[in-house]
């Protein structure tokens, strides 16, 4: 397989989109341009930080596509063979860093951890603001602005590396909630039977709590009261949580349409599912899925194979 090995600190200094550079890094800006294509497979000799302002700039590694919609921050370490796939009106801010600069900074900040090889995640506002400020300052000349750009680039590097430290210690899927299983201690036979019935039938959208109450020999009033007393939950809340947990696993772990997820989980419609996500998490179902789809930190190198006398990452 053919590939290109690029030294961006050398190559990008000669291109018109390069705005500013020093011995440690280089800043460039790509104005909105209609794009619909894929780059050749290539690897870099530098660390790359890319802010996707508009359009999409997905990353492909080992035949796996990592989506990068607008607002994404992409980090790529040296010697990772990869492809960029762009679509739409693409606008980006691009930083490259000399490896020795990043290694020295990382050793001072996080000496006992490994630098991520690849990271794709929503850009924090402070990092986006710093990169946009750098572009504005770089479009003007002067010694004071040169010193400010050196300071901003250093702050950007520190904020980015600390972002990886925080993100890697967060759960992979923070929205996955644990299934509610009330303690069986002190639960009567009728309520235990009702819990089993709900767990086995929550995917049906026509469940009637009144019918379950009758099946366990209680009126709806006494059933609701005893259920709440013995489990600390209302029957309706327990049923909703069962459905929401199942829906979240499908929403964040599959590409099923929202209507199909809602139907499988007993929620009836995509609108009901989205309203439930909005009231519980403050975001619609679609926004939860989009946010989750571009939050990756790869701490292990992709699979390698030998090409000539050197190791290359397999794409």
UniProtKB/TrEMBL annotation:
Q: What keywords are annotated for this sequence in UniProt?
A: DNA-binding, Transcription, Transcription regulation
Q: State the source organism's domain of life.
A: Bacteria
Tell whether DNA-binding is among the UniProt keywords: yes
One Pfam annotation, family name?
A: HTH_18
- Listed InterPro entries: AraC-bd, AraC_XylS_family_regulators, Homeodomain-like_sf, HTH-like, HTH_AraC, RmlC-like_jellyroll
Named from the GO MF annotations, one term is:
DNA-binding transcription factor activity
Q: Where is the HTH araC/xylS-type domain?
A: 192-291
* UniProt key word Ribonucleoprotein: no
PANTHER family linked? HTH-TYPE DNA-BINDING TRANSCRIPTIONAL ACTIVATOR EUTR, HTH-TYPE TRANSCRIPTIONAL ACTIVATOR RHAS-RELATED
Q: What is this protein called?
A: HTH araC/xylS-type domain-containing protein
């Amino acid at each position: 397989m053919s590939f290109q090995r690029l030294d961006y600190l050398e190559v990008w200094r000669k291109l018109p989109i390069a705005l500013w550079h020093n011995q440690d890094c280089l800043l460039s800006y790509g104005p909105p341009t209609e794009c619909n294509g894929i780059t050749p497979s290539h690897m870099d000799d530098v660390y790359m930080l890319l802010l996707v302002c508009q359009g999409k700039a997905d990353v492909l590694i080992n035949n796996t596509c990592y989506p990068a919609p607008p607002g994404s921050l992409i980090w790529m370490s040296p010697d990772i063979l990869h492809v960029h796939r762009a679509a739409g009106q693409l606008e980006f801010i691009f930083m490259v860093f000399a490896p020795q600069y990043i290694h020295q900074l990382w050793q001072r900040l996080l000496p006992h951890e490994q630098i991520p090889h690849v990271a794709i995640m929503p850009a924090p506002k402070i990092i986006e603001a710093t990169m946009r400020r750098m572009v504005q300052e770089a479009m003007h000349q002067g010694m004071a602005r040169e010193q400010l750009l050196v300071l901003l680039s250093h702050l950007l590097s520190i904020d980015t590396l600390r972002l990886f430290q925080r993100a890697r210690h967060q759960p992979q899927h923070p929205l996955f909630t644990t299934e509610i299983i009330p303690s069986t201690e002190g639960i009567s036979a009728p309520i235990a039977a009702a819990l089993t019935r709900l767990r086995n039938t929550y995917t049906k959208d026509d469940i009637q709590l009144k019918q379950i109450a009758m099946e366990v020999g209680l009126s709806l009033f006494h059933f609701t009261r005893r259920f709440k007393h013995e489990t600390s939950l209302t029957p309706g809340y327990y049923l909703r949580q069962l459905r929401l947990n199942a829906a979240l696993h499908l929403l964040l772990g599959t590409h099923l349409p929202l209507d199909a997820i809602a139907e499988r989980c007993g929620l009836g419609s995509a609108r009901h599912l989205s309203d439930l996500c909005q009231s519980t998490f403050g975001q619609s179902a679609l926004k939860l899925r989009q946010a989750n789809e571009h939050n990756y930190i790869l701490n292990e190198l992709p699979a390698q194979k030998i090409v000539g006398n050197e190791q290359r990452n397999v794409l």
